[in-house]
Amino acid sequence: MKISVVISAFNEEKNIEEALKSVKRIADEIIVIDNDSSDLTPSIAKKYTKQVFSQKNDPKKIDLQKNFGFSKATGDWILSIDADERITPELEDEIKSKLDNAPEIVDGFWISRKNIIFGKWIKNEMWWPDFQLKLFRRGKGEFEGGTVHKALVVAGQTQKLENFLLHVNYESISQFISKLNNYTDIEAISLVEAGYKFNWLDAIRFPVDDFVKTFFLQRGYSDGLHGLVLSLLQAFYMETVFAKLWEKNKFEEVVMPDFVDDVRREFIVSSGKISYWYTSIFIRNTKNPLKKTLLKIKRKISSSKINS
Fold first, then answer.
1. In terms of pTM, does the model score above 0.85?
2. What is the tens place of the pLDDT at every residue in 169-182?
């Protein structure tokens, strides 16, 4: 089975060489789509492949460039990775074994990603196992819509691989904030296109709900300070999304006689949500039946604040 590796990159001189090194043994051909990089990305890529194609950069439709790369592939299978991703030897062996014995009905494989963020492997449910559809039969997969965070779609049955792809994700706060600006633009546009109706209370609800989801429901707390900071950054992300939705409404002023009271009530509801899930963690972890009962009563009180 012939494997084509496709990488789409923009100003990735820091990362792309390690990505290319990691795939050189598994790839029968390597295709790099350079999105108007102003650094050494294309010259580094040319050390590993002659198939380096230039595309106009559009950070809001970056996956369209990946589709372009797929169209240039000649292999039986296409492995799509980013410049900050690495194929491990274990994953390489598994891919070769799977493709040698892949049933005809299987057209794609999901690969988990081990996300390294701020120097640590983040294991909470938001970031692990983080399965991505990365490997598929040529002609069977493409990105639909072409915007960042749109999923690769494969026409056919898929399976999951056991070994992970190493993802050298955010290495600094500056990098997170730099990418946040583009991603929140896309998120705001997507919400508008989905029919979102502007509500000023979302200035509170968006960040609080995302913090609750990432820190409590997805167990961000299990990653300690890393998990807390990432959950707060995610809350900031959603606050930025709200602000951009407000901007699209031309910063329309909302005049209400009881504005301060409305804000106070919304924060009471928010504190109830946080208290509810905080208490739920203790209920899950305690082995004392009496203490568990008392905590459930406390959680019920918190729930009444949310629903009041």
1. yes
2. 999 999 999 999 98
